[in-house]
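Input set for joint prediction.
Command: fold jointly, output tokens.
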Amino acid sequence: MNRYRDDPDLIRSLVRGCEVHRDVYIDPDLFDLEMQRLWHTAWVYVGHDSQVPNAGDFHTTEIARQPLLMTRTREGDVRVLYNRCAHKGAKIASAVSGNCGGILRCPYHGWTYRLDGALRTVPLKGGYENSGFEGSPAALGLTAVAGVAVHRGFVFARLSREGPAFAEYFGDSLSSIDNMADRSPAGRLEVVGGALRYMHDCNWKMFIENLNDTMHPMVAHESSAGTVRDLWKDQQPDAPKPMVVEQFLPFVSNYEFFDKMGVKIYDNGHSYTGVNFSIHSKYSSMPEYEAQMEAAYGAERAQAILGEIRHNTVYYPSLTIKGAIQTIRIARPIAVDRTLIESFTLRLVGAPESLLERSVMYNRIINSPASVVGHDDLHCYRSLQEGLAGEGNEWVSLHRNYSRENEARGIAGIHNGTSEVSVRGQFRAWLAAMAPQARVR
Amino acid sequence: MMRGVANDGELIEFVYAEARLIDEKRLEDWYELFAEDGCYWVPLTRGQQGGRTENSIFFEDKLLLKVRIARLRNPHAYSQAQPSWCQHVLQAPAIENRGEATGVAVIRTPFVYAESQRDQQEIYAGVAWHHLRRVQGRLAIALKKVELLNCEAALPSLQLFP
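tokens >
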């Protein structure tokens, strides 16, 4: 019995002004509803089309506890299907990725499907004559998800038939993906290497909220970035910094730095920090790459692309990206207190290898299960998860820089970088999906 | 007579002593075992060729190792408010190459590694590859590569050094 399922008013009571009730992070019933409502109506990241470059390639994943299969057809399209045989339900593909040669075959009874999911053959088909099979769901083959959209190689799916269209859902927030892809002289990105898979024993929203939380780095990351600062403090100001120093130091920038960075929000929970500059702004220049960019785009356009140095962009609720350093992180909720974070490195096609080295180092030191930065983040999320059980105060504060005037600027304006406006925006989106004004499904 | 960078007993003792330094958290001493250009590497994928242009779990030069060790000593390392401890259990190291031609000895050591923090304990298994060379008369780690059996699994925080 899920006490929230048929009580939208009870769900609405969890978000009041600048506060949310602790249940949004710790209640398993709400988690179930999040999977069914928010994660089914949202456009959720599935993978990158460079993970299925050739016809017959497949990649398996899971969204909102749904087993999914991304395929590349002979025509070159990317399809997203439920990874569930139409017969008895076995997963068609069990490997993370591979090439099926053009036919998907169930390992149990050998039913075969085309790459678009259409049923191809069933052994001893005569056994189905006059059985009513032709009109059954099984005859339709593998079920496709309700919606698929590919933007600059990023593949998104919407599981529910109802919900906003792709362009409307993301709006201008897609400019962050565009900027990442534009940073390739060829305008293309490719996933390289394995996924860093870091299990977080916390609610998925804690991770997502943290991406544009700019009040924590100077505190939580004092031990890692602060250590680098201390090791480096006797160097001359113009001494060339090793890459690792260059990447760590900005984490312990002061409050003013993060405040002036700026944050921009969009409808449906999306946001990005680093409107004006970011922790990636001071990386050493790479003349060979810059020359390639000018040759590809012209000086003015190249400068505009490289001058846009955003921090994190959150594509609510599943994907966060760092265009300036070409890394992405995907939140895969497993339970109310368990979330898998998968991080991928993308290569700028046509760019020198030194950029890839920079991305790989950043991704590893920040997002690996052995990340010294991530250990302290996860420590904080875990203590949130445990601390919220504490009684007496059931509310979580999201008041920072709230005012009627500030909030009214909404998606039009640039907010100060330390504002919690992005989290308030996430909860507006959350509520709209969890307790829609129309009848709750 | 010694052949290669060291006699067999010295190579094997080095591998045992190296693990013990980590387990006893004598990490500054452990750090000193690495050659100046030494590397500590835990690949992310099976058969991974390198760490520069592909994601790894660890891929540390001495500077990064120094940062990591100094962080563990920092009172603000919140994830270590309750300290982690670890234990290596090593199978007898096998000398794959004495380094007669290359100047680099290669030793292969299957292991079990446990890392615990209060009520949690994770058990890992794998193979450690030590690439050792002689630097100013003593053995130094050019590369310690640790192949975890479950390198591609979703892992919790790995806070010490397998």
